[in-house]
Design brief:
With 239 residues, this protein is an alpha/beta fold. It folds into two domains: 1-37; 39-230, Rossmann fold. 41% of the residues lie in helices and 32% in strands. Strands 1, 2, 3, 4, 5, 6 and 7 form a seven-stranded mixed sheet that branches. Helix 2 packs across helix 6 (217-230). It is globular.
Length: 239
């Protein structure tokens, strides 16, 4: 082997080693920066006031008792039903502390203790077909719960996707997680059987990270409920 060839080989090795160290340094620096900073998030939401009954004054809710009942969810999302109702109950408690709200857990317990489990089941089944809560059954359930209104939460869909942006040696370093949630909320008058107020909304929460990261469902639900409830009435300044 000639001296010139040996020289080229040594230069190639040095450049290869230097290039490998540079790539490794860049990857380590990116991991440290993103690891310390945590996930970057972008939030967007849009709500729409569907209806408000003539003469309905949201401020009067503070003088009435209200219950949150089990959420109705789309096909394939049954596992999210309790989380949807619970997140709404927690949002009402946090944003409207003056409002007397019966949690979905307490509401279901009282319905069962009053011997109205069949009536409630029939009520929900009929609603799934017609979109109507039967007046007489709704009144009986309202009396058992001792409430004037019930919040009926509805989840239309919840989608999550992961977009891989960069990987090295089979390891995902940069990725974007996107969650899209669609919710609706109805406030039913248990005395008249009418819808006093209704609103719906859609939220998108995107997070970028160098690590495995999943956006908690209740976080995005809580944020969207806050926006939807603003269509009902602004939260008191004290909260």
């Amino acid at each position: 082997m000639s001296d010139q060839w040996r020289g080229w080989t040594r230069i190639g090795r040095r450049q290869g080693a230097r290039g490998g160290r540079q790539i490794l340094s860049v990857l380590l620096l990116a991991a440290l920066l993103f690891g310390c900073a945590g996930p970057l998030r972008q939030w967007g939401s849009e709500t729409s006031l569907v209806s408000r009954a003539p003469g309905f004054d949201p401020s009067l809710l503070q003088q009435r008792r209200v219950a949150v009942v089990n959420a109705l969810v789309g096909f394939g999302y049954e596992g999210f039903g309790h989380q949807v109702s619970r997140s709404l109950s927690h949002t009402l408690r946090d944003e409207y502390p003056a409002l007397a709200v019966l949690s979905p857990q307490d509401a279901i317990s009282r319905i069962n203790q009053a011997g109205l489990s069949k009536e409630y089941t029939d009520l929900v089944a009929a609603y799934m077909q017609s979109g109507v809560l039967h007046q007489e059954d709704l009144r009986r359930i309202g009396d058992a719960l001792m409430v004037d209104y019930v919040f009926q939460p509805i989840m239309a869909s919840f989608e999550q996707s992961v977009w891989e942006r960069f990987s090295f040696l089979g390891v995902r370093l940069f990725q974007t997680r996107v969650s899209v949630l669609r919710l609706s909320l109805q406030l039913w008058d248990t005395k008249t059987g009418g819808i006093a107020w209704e609103s719906s909304g859609e939220a998108t929460l995107a997070g970028e990270d160098v690590r495995e990261y999943r956006i908690p469902f209740e976080e995005i639900a809580h944020r969207l409920w806050r926006q939807i409830l603003k269509d009902l009435a602004p939260a008191p300044a004290s909260s």
